[in-house]
Amino acid sequence: MGLVIIFGLVALLAAYGTYSTIRNKNFLGLIFAAGTFAVIGWFTIMTAIHHGIPASH
Hints:
By secondary structure, the chain is mainly α. The protein has helices at 2-24, 27-51. Helix 1 packs antiparallel against helix 2 (27-51). The longest helix has 25 residues, at 27-51. This is Putative membrane protein.
């Protein structure tokens, strides 16, 4: 359960970073921020599906 929360927070920060780089027209930063958002967001979704929310024992 804690891993899903940490992944979710990192994904939210990456989403904010993606928005910030779009606003500042920083295209290299956009590539890295969007990539981080995509990968960590996917990890968040798949961890939540695989381990369940709330965590099942």
